[in-house]
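Working notes for the structural subgroup meeting. M.R. asked for a predicted model of this chain before we commit to crystallization trials. I am recording the input and output together here so anyone reviewing the notebook later can reproduce the run.

Input as submitted:
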Amino acid sequence: MNRIIITLSLTMVLSCVANAQTYYYKLAKKVHNGTATTNVSGGQFITFMADICYESDKKGIGVGHGTLTRNNNYSNSQFKVYIGKSYWGSDAAFKFTSDLATLNVVTESGDVYLYKRSTAPAKATTCSLIRKTSSGGGGGGGISYPVQPVYTTGGQTTTGGSYGGGTASGSTGSSGSKCRLCNGTGRKISLVHPGDATQTKWCSECNKTVGTGHFHTQCDLCRGTGWIK
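Returned structure, recorded in C-alpha cell form:
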C-alpha cells in the first residue's frame, strides 16, 4: 500500500513538473511616483505550475525567492493576479494580462515594473534580479492593495480592480496593531488612471512630487483609525 501511495505521489509530482511552463519577461518600463522611465534593463524567468508561479532559471528551477499563488478573488477575464513571495518580498503582487504576455509587478510603495514576455537573450540563464540573502517575511495575502494602473508597451494604461486581502499587522500599540496598509496614518494611497505620466503634482500628505493619478483616501482596512484591534 505504501509503495502504491509513493508511486501515485511521484506520478503527480512528475505530471506537474511536465506541465510547468517557463517564460522570460524583459523589463520594459518602471513607474515611480507616477513618472515612467524606459531607461531600464534586465529580465526575469518565471515558471508557471498549476495555480502558482515563481521566479526561476531558464530550466524552471526556482532561484530561492519563494512562490506566488493565483488569487481568484482578484483575478478576472482580463488579469491574473498572483500574490506571495518574490524578489520584492512578500508585499508585492504579480499582475499578468490574461494571455500572460504582460506582467506588472506592483510594490507596496506603489511602484510599477512593466515586463513583457519575450525571447530570452542567448546568454541569459537565470533572473537578473536575485536576492543575495533571504528577506524572510510571510506568504502572500497579508496586504490589501489599492487600485493600480496596468501598463502596456503601447504606452496605454488600463485600470484594474483592487487586489489583495487578509488582515495585516505591524507594530503593536495600546489600541492594537498598527495598520500596515496605511502605516498608522488612517489614509492610504489610491492610484487611478494616471494619464500622461509626465504630468505631476505636489502631494502635501507624502510631501513629494507625485503623478496626477495619485490620491489619498480613508484606509478601508483600519477604517481610518490607523490601528487594527
